[in-house]
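Researcher: Last one for today. Full complex below.
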Amino acid sequence: MNLIHVINGPNLNLLGTREPEVYGSETLVDIELRLTEIAAKAKVSIQFRQSNHEGDLVDWVQEAGGAGAGVILNAGAYTHTSIALRDAISGSGAHVIEVHLSNVHAREHFRHRSLIAPVARGVILGFGSFSYDLALQGLLASAGKQKS
Ligand code: DQA
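Model: Here's the assembly. Have a good evening.
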């Protein structure tokens, strides 16, 4: 695994100003820079993307799955609604770690169900932006790129 895709869904472009009491004050660029640095130490590249459009996320998951790359996926609200995204994961065989900044189980009922979790390799949530770091560590360790 020499490339890890980090795929971010709707409204995550607003991180930093969006409900900071829920999502923290770091921006998506802050997270991208930190992950890129961590991955570089393991000689792995990061492809970091965000879209507000479901079809883009489907395309990117398929691309990663087809290439056998690992995926860190924060699908935002599509986590709770998108059968298309779930099918993209199961259909492409993408090795996906689902992440969330917030603990969705401590929030509104409609956030308790994830359509993605049953087809993900793992789920990490509730650690703020550090959820991404933990997912990266998990992917690197499972690929033998990091001592754990
Ligand atoms: C989120 C949780 C989702 O319920 C929400 O729609 C988001 C962000 C998180 O990272 O905590 O957009 O995925």
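The domain at 3-142 is CATH 3.40.50.9100 (Rossmann fold). The chain has one domain: 3-142.
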